[in-house]
Amino acid sequence: MHRLLLLLGILTLLPVSLAAEVVQDNPEFKAARANLVRSTIKGRGITDPPVLAAMGAVMRHCFVPNSIIKSAYADTALPIGEGQTISQPYVVALMTASLALDATQRVLEIGTGSGYQAAVLANIVNTVYSIEIKRKLHLKSTKLLKDLGYGNIVTRHGDGYFGWQDAAPFDAIMITAAVNHIPPPLLKQLKDGGRLILPLGNPFSYQNLTLVTRQGNEFTTRQITGVLFVPMTGVALDK
Question: Is pLDDT of 75 > 80?
Answer without folding.
Answer: yes
